[in-house]
Amino acid sequence: MAKILYVGTAGSDDPTRAGLPFNFAIGALEAGHLPEIFLAGEAAYLMKDPVMSAVQPVAMPALKEMIDTLVARSVPLYV
């Protein structure tokens, strides 16, 4: 079991890149690892409810759905 830190820097202007750290963290959880997410720069705005609800990455679940999954599993999110 590894502890993994995913760093996100993309904001709502690039929804697919913005969703990657959250998608990767869910994959790490499923593989039995301990993911953490650090959001820097524009990515910090993703934590605002209206922004979070509006972001839909390509080929991934909605950002809000991924964040809800991670919060329910107690994955640390640093902003």
How would you summarize this macromolecular structure in one to three sentences?
Helix content is 41%, strand content 18%.
Q: What order do the SSEs take from the amino end to the carboxyl end, as H and E?
A: EHEHHE
- C-alpha Rg, in Å? 11 Å
Which shape, going by the Cα principal axes? globular
Counting structural domains, the number is 1
Name the strands of the widest sheet in spatial order: 1-2-3
In this structure, how is the largest beta sheet organized?
A: 3 strands, parallel
- Helix percent band: 40-55%
What ranges have pLDDT less than 50 throughout 5 or more consecutive residues? Answer: none
Estimate what percentage of residues fall within beta strands: 15-25%
- Specify the number of helices: 3
Report mean pLDDT, rounded to a whole number: 98
Question: How many β strands by DSSP?
Answer: 3
Distance between the termini: 24 Å
Structural class: alpha/beta
Structure write-up:
By secondary structure, the protein is α/β, with parallel strands linked by helices. Helices cover 41% and strands 18% of the residues. It contains 3 helices and 3 strands. A 3-stranded parallel beta sheet has the order 1-2-3, with helices on one face. Strand 1, helix 1 and strand 2 form a beta-alpha-beta unit. The chain is globular. It starts with a strand and ends with a strand.
